[in-house]
């Protein structure tokens, strides 16, 4: 009997239960995947707490990698025996075995391990749409990146540096500052020790940055707007510190005709051709060594509740992977 993490209610980490879970044979358009590794992401916390509601009961998790065991009728994208990975809806990754729509799967190149893939698909494809979709980062772009030592931040900083950007990262500890510098940040701001707005303005000689990438939310949102140059772009793609309050959009004109976007990976990879473009660009920068995937910690899948506790307490950096079996 296979196992999975199941949620019957929203709440703290204790709602994540390790239960028997054997999926039925894959249906029309589905593939059955046996996971080698599962990715841990902050959006999983939003699902667990009900910030982003899922129908209950549910197996959460949006990222995994493994081997296709079987396919249902009509599947052409993958075949039994293929090494595959995925990121995004539908949930169900916190399982030893799962069924998933085959069109959401991408085949892994030989150079990418399943453990690497589980630690990079959601974060890396997020980095791709941030850098190439939300704002076209090129040589000379000035970027302010919050949570620069985190899973997405570590990838964005490396990739943006490769594109020729100047990267300013914010972090909350000495250890995280060292990690941010190691991953390409030209300047690192300790937000617990100095005003990141004043420091960003100092670094840019008063001009402001071209784009802010903010996954922190409530604690940083309004001050991030003050870091932007006129007609700069604010990309709010998470809310780890809490939900952002309703906004009077007049503030965007008052602060310099700013642009604001709230993207999701589900939108940017909704079409299969877009999914493959994001995945292939990610595979290329990883294979070439431009981006190194830093899996800093693993947990048994059965201990996912503890992984959530550590993630919420900011005791993790880089990518964290859950291991079945």
UniProtKB/TrEMBL annotation:
Superkingdom: Bacteria
Principal EC category: oxidoreductase
EC number of the protein: 1.6.5.5
Cellular component terms per the entry's GO annotation: cytosol
Keywords carried by this UniProt record: NADP, Oxidoreductase
Occurrences of domain Enoyl reductase (ER) (ranges): 11-322
Transmembrane regions: none
SMART domains attached to this UniProt entry: PKS_ER
GO MF annotations in UniProt: mRNA 3'-UTR AU-rich region binding; NADPH binding; quinone reductase (NADPH) activity
Pfam families: ADH_N, ADH_zinc_N
Catalytic activity: 2 a quinone + NADPH + H(+) = 2 a 1,4-benzosemiquinone + NADP(+)
InterPro entries: ADH-like_C, ADH-like_N, ER, GroES-like_sf, NAD(P)-bd_dom_sf, QOR-like
Family statement: Belongs to the zinc-containing alcohol dehydrogenase family. Quinone oxidoreductase subfamily.
Stated name of the protein: NADPH:quinone reductase
The organism of origin for this protein: Sulfurifustis variabilis
């Amino acid at each position: 009997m296979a196992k999975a993490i199941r949620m019957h209610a929203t709440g703290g980490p204790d709602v994540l239960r390790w239960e028997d879970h054997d999926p039925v044979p894959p249906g029309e358009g589905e593939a059955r995947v046996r996971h080698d590794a599962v990715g841990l992401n902050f959006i999983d916390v939003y699902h667990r707490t009900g910030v982003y509601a899922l129908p209950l009961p549910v197996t959460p998790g949006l990222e995994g990698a493994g081997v296709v065991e079987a396919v249902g009728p009509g599947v052409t994208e993958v075949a039994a025996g293929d090494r595959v990975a995925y990121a995004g809806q539908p949930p169900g990754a916190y399982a030893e075995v799962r069924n998933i729509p085959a069109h959401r799967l991408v085949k892994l190149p030989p150079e990418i391990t399943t453990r690497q893939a589980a630690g990079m698909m959601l974060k890396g494809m997020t980095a791709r749409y941030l850098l190439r979709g939300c704002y076209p980062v090129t040589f000379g772009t000035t970027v302010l990146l919050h949570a620069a030592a985190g899973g997405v931040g570590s990838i964005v900083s490396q990739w943006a540096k490769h594109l020729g950007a100047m990267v300013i990262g914010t972090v909350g500890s000495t250890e995280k500052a060292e990690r941010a510098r190691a991953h390409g940040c030209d300047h690192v701001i300790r937000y617990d020790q100095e005003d990141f707005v004043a420091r960003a303005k100092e670094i840019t000689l008063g001009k402001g940055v071209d784009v802010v990438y903010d996954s922190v939310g409530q604690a940083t949102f309004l001050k991030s707007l003050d870091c932007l140059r006129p007609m700069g772009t604010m990309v709010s793609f998470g809310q780890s510190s809490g939900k952002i309050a309703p906004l009077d959009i007049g503030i965007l004109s008052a602060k310099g005709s700013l642009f604001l976007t709230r993207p999701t990976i589900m939108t940017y990879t909704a079409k299969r051709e877009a999914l493959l473009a994001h995945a292939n660009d990610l595979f290329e920068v990883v294979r070439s060594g431009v981006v190194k995937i830093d899996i800093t910690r693993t947990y048994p899948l059965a201990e996912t509740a503890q992984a959530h506790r550590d993630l919420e307490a900011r005791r993790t950096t880089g990518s964290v992977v859950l291991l079945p079996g």
